[in-house]
Design brief:
With 284 residues, the protein is an alpha/beta fold. It has helices at residues 13-19, 41-47, 75-84, 104-113, 125-131, 160-169, 180-184, 220-230, 248-257, 268-272; strands at 3-4, 7-8, 10-11, 25-29, 54-55, 92-96, 119-122, 157-158, 173-176, 203-204, 238-241, 263-265. Mean pLDDT is 94; it is low at 1-5.
């Protein structure tokens, strides 16, 4: 297990099983799917989840006034959402998913953005939990509320001005988690009104490159090699980006496994490609 301070950021199903009944361990299901898949994630959570888990709704724990999908909420709204889920600032939070694009790291990143240090991702998610023979439960969950106070940590967030600076001055590496064909512009964006391609100078590292065939993260040395093969200087600053800020968090999490800090561009391609004043290139 890889640790930040005294708490691991990636935990095994065995670790969670051994600690599941600890009063300060809170488990969250942050499963999310593309809108085109028409999945009801809350209903699927109620059908099957890890015992004691609550549902962290990535589609609704967002900035309610932003026109962009998945924009991180303000500190007050996040505090209210975490409190309603029964989370306190002292809790050890473990996040899992069932998603093919590994949405748990997005919820992990949100907690980091709001200053929560004791937060981890469950390696392999619910599928691994079940493969390892652990039980699940079903039905709606109504957590007992607690008091959570979010403290924004802006050092993990990049806005469009920071990305413009990176593009214009080549000062920060932009690493794009989208699939290769979307990055090159060969595949059209599924959100209407978006240009295809990528930011000038960006490096492509599809998020799935960091995940093994069993759905678990690769060992840290293999994660580091994936970044290096893509052309990322692990000693230099990095901004991660993707379509709407979700799978970029997989790259940010991978860097955290290596003890590296990064910023995540929350608006990502949805914001960048929807504006007429931002440069876009196609091809490799």
């Amino acid at each position: 297990m890889v640790s930040t301070d005294a708490f691991p950021i990636l935990v095994s199903t065995g670790w969670l099983f051994d600690n599941l009944k600890a009063p300060d361990v809170k488990v969250l299901d942050a499963s999310s799917y593309l809108p085109t898949e028409n999945r009801d994630t809350r209903a699927e959570f109620e059908q099957e989840h890890i015992p004691g888990a609550a549902f962290f709704d990535l589609e609704n724990i967002v900035d309610s006034v932003s026109p962009l999908p998945h924009t991180v909420p303000n500190a007050v709204d996040f505090s209210n959402a975490a409190s309603a889920l029964g989370i306190s600032n002292a809790d050890r939070v473990v996040i899992y998913d069932t998603s093919p694009f590994f949405s748990a790291p997005r919820a992990w990143w949100m907690f980091k953005h709001f200053g929560h240090e004791k937060v981890a991702v469950l390696d392999g998610g619910l599928p691994q939990w079940k493969r390892d023979g652990h039980t699940t439960e079903h039905g709606p969950v109504h957590p007992e509320g607690d008091t959570y106070i979010a403290r924004e940590n802006s050092s993990v967030l990049a806005d469009i001005d920071k990305v413009r600076e990176a593009v214009e001055q080549h000062s920060i590496q932009l690493v794009d988690a989208r699939g290769r064909s979307r990055f090159t512009g060969e595949e059209q964006e599924f959100r209407p009104g978006l240009r295809s391609g990528h930011m000038p100078g960006a490096i492509n590292l599809p998020y799935a490159s960091l995940i093994g065939p069993d759905g678990r993260f690769l060992p840290p040395e293999a994660v580091a090699e994936r970044f290096r093969q893509a052309g990322v200087d692990l000693e230099g600053p990095v901004i991660t980006t993707c379509g709407s800020g979700v799978t970029a968090a997989v790259l940010s999490f991978g860097l955290a496994l290596l003890g590296r800090e990064s910023r995540l561009y929350d608006g990502s391609w949805t914001e960048w490609a929807s504006r007429p004043d931002t440069p876009v290139v196609t091809g490799p």
